[in-house]
Amino acid sequence: MSDPTSAQQSLLAGRRWRAWEPLLWLAAFASPVLLPSHAFIVNEIAIVALFAVSLDLVLGYTGIVSLGHAAFLGMGAYSAALFAKYVMPDPLVGLAVGIATATVLGAIASVTIQRGTDLTRLMVTLGFALILLELANKLDWLTGGSDGLQGVVMGPVLGRFEFDLSGRTAAWYSMTVLLILFFLARRFVNSPLGATLKAIRDNRLRAMAIGIPVGSRLAVAYTVAAAIAGAAGALMAQTSGFASLDVFEFHRSADVLLMLVVGGTGWLYGGVAGAIVFTLLQDTLSSVTPQYWTFWLGLFLVVLVRVGRDRLIRPWTWWRRGRPS
Hints:
By secondary structure, the chain is mainly alpha-helical.
C-alpha cells in the first residue's frame, strides 16, 4: 500500500523549478532581441507550443487521442478576432474571451469522449472540428467565410506595448501567456486531481474500481485542455490580425500530434520541445526544398519512430532524468 506522505511529496516535487528551467525561459525571452529577424517564428513557436501542451493534457495524462483538437484552437481564434473587430481591441480582454468560449465548447465536447473506444473518440473529435469548420465557412456574413476574417486591428498590450512590425511585442506577449499557462498546467497535473488522471490513463477499470469518478475527471481534463488551446488560438489571431478557416483544418490537429510524437507525451516540456523541433524543421525544409519539404519531414518522422527518440537524442537524455511533469 502506498504511503500518502510520499505521494504528496512526489506531487510537490513535480511543481518545483529545476536549475535549468529559469535559464531556459530567460533564453526564450531573450531570443527576440538576440535574433531580431526571427521574432515572428519565435512567436509562432510559442503559440504552437501552447497548443501542444493543451493536447498533452488529454493525450499524455488521460490517454485520450484526439484528431479534432483544432476545434478549440479555431474557436479561440475566431472569438478573439470577432471581439477585437466588433467590440474592443484590447488584447488581454480578447484573450479572456477566446479562453472562455473555448472552455464552454470543451465542456460541451467532453460529453462525447467519455464513452466508446479510441477509434470512436478519434472519429467523434474529428467530426466535431469538421462541423465547426463548415459553420465558419457558411456563416460568411460573420466570419468572412473562405476569405477569412480580415481587418482585425489590436490595441497595445496593457495599453503601452504596441504590436510592431518587428514582431518583438507579439513574441513576448505569446511567450508570457505560454509561461503562465504552462506552469498552471504543471500545477494541475501534479495535483491530486492530476494523479487521478494518470490512474485513469494507466488502467481505467482499476480507477473505477477504487472509486475515481472517471467521467467527471475526463470532462475536467478535456475542458482545461480546450481552454489552453483556445488561448493559443486567440494569440494566433491577435498577433497575425487575421482568422481563417485554416485554424479548423485537419492538418492543425495532425501537426500537433506529430509535435508530441517528436517531443514525447506525458511530459509538458515534450510539447514545447516538439513544437520547437517541428516548426524549425518545417521552416528550414520549406525554404531549402520548397517542392519536396514534406518528403524530408516525413522521412524524419519515420526515422524517429523506427530508431526511437531516445537513441536520436541520447547526448541530451540526462536533461529528462528527474524531469518535472
